[in-house]
Amino acid sequence: MGSEKEKIGMIGIGYVGLVTATCLAELGNRVVCMDIDAVKIESLKNGEIPIFEPGLAELIEKNRERLDFTAALEDVFKQCEIVFIAVDTPPTFTGDADLSRVFAVMSSLPGMPDGHHILVMKSTVPVGTGGKISGELNRQKIGSIDYVSNPEFLREGSAIGDFLNPDRIVIGSQAPEAGEKVARLYRKLDKPILMTGLATAEMIKYASNAFLATKISFINEIANVCDEIGADVSVVAEGMGYDQRIGDSFLNAGIGFGGSCFPKDVTALKQIAGNSGYHFQLLTAVIEVNELQKRRVVNKLKKHLGTLTDKTIALLGLAFKPNTNDLREASSIVLASRLLGDGAYVKAYDPVAIPDAARAVRGVLLCDDVLSAVDGSDAAVLVTEWDEFAELPLAEMKQRMRHPLIIDGRNFLDPDKIRAAGFTYEGIGR
Ligand SMILES: NC(=O)c1ccc[n+]([C@@H]2O[C@H](COP(=O)([O-])OP(=O)(O)OC[C@H]3O[C@@H](n4cnc5c(N)ncnc54)[C@H](O)[C@@H]3O)[C@@H](O)[C@H]2O)c1
User: Fold this and answer.
1) Which of 10, 11, 15, 169 to mutate to test the pocket of ligand 1 (most atoms within 8 A of CB)?
2) Chain-centroid distance, C-alpha 206
3) CATH superfamily, region 3-198
4) Class for domain 212-426, per CATH?
5) Helices (DSSP H) in 190-280: which residue ranges?
6) Are the CB atoms for 310 and 374 separated by under 8 Å?
7) In angstroms, what is the span from residue 120 Cα to ligand 1's centroid?
8) Fold match between 3-198 and 212-426?
9) What does the domain layout of the chain look like in residue ranges?
10) Residues 311-328: tens digit of each pLDDT
11) Model-level pTM greater than 0.90?
12) Residues 86-133: tens digit of each pLDDT
């Protein structure tokens, strides 16, 4: 690599881009971070971190000398041979992945400084995208550019640990030398690196997320049966998890999966299959079960309260999972709108997502703490299993609530403790 291109580029500084750039800096690289959101870039330059991710602010501070922030794409291509793309690929109304941001980056390439570049796709893109982009790059003869697929498996809330201690690294490439250069960035981690073709790398990402989502919908259906027959899904899951062929992860029953990845990736894989002429029946069921699961709490509330009109329901947690402020596709949003649709008043508290919630969930009274949220409420629903909810101020809650009912949407609380405090407790399948 020439000395003038010794840095690594990162285009799209969101959850994935910022964590990846910071971790690559932690591994000793100098990284140029570019985003079209100039306000975000300015705040990053001023040391403000736009997302909540445990440990990220400290790691950015530690590696500040190795991280540059810019809103100009040419700054990246001038200084970097290896350029990661981590822009968002949200779902379109059909469920296909929207690649407009990826294509926006691609269409700016002809104006970029010359030299050899390796474009590394971190964004989750439909199977076949890499092949098409590589073909187009060859056809248009835009400089000397190799394309590598390097899907990301980090989870928000534990993203730094996931990046620095991954189960595996997947690198798909038609150009072995380019693939090897990207692999070299990860060698220090001493983890399995799987070198594959482009389509296979892309498929590994979708298949992994779809499988995990399937596990969640599966245990949620088991929970629903447990509700009917009086078995306890938590113990069922524990018993299943001891079986090494099954494993104990992703067997927590609850009110469904959300977030920026599972819902969109499962739907996108269903669409990818459908577009190629194959009807992926299992995924259709996984999606449907998940949608119904988000609404099950409404029936549980009605069972205890009758009509929800003019009742006040407190939601504890709004983020799609703990340790993130991300509300994309969060179960809380569907639940809140269902409750509002049934005529209930909805109050909510989340330890970190309240500022973002003002935009995402309309009509909900956002509160500063648990007690303000449950004040005058007919029921509290635990939606996100934040650590601080493990020690709820039960005595004060009981005094403040109109009706002592707690629905535990994540099977996170201790039922005996809640009941001993004078509440009616209901979990999901326990
Ligand atoms: N969030 C996750 O947990 C996660 C995990 C694995 C994979 N992924 C995948 O990684 C990709 C990024 O996800 P994310 O959650 O980080 O998204 P995000 O929305 O948090 O961030 C995307 C960033 O890209 C920027 N951007 C958009 N168009 C741009 C352009 N033309 N040029 C420069 N910047 C541009 C946006 O301003 C934003 O800052 C997606 O494809 C997602 O599916 C996400």
Assistant:
1) 15
2) 14
3) NAD(P)-binding Rossmann-like Domain (3.40.50.720)
4) alpha beta
5) 198-229, 233-241, 262-275
6) no
7) 14
8) yes
9) 3-198, 212-426
10) 999 999 999 999 999 999
11) yes
12) 999 999 999 999 999 999 999 998 888 888 999 999 999 999 999 999
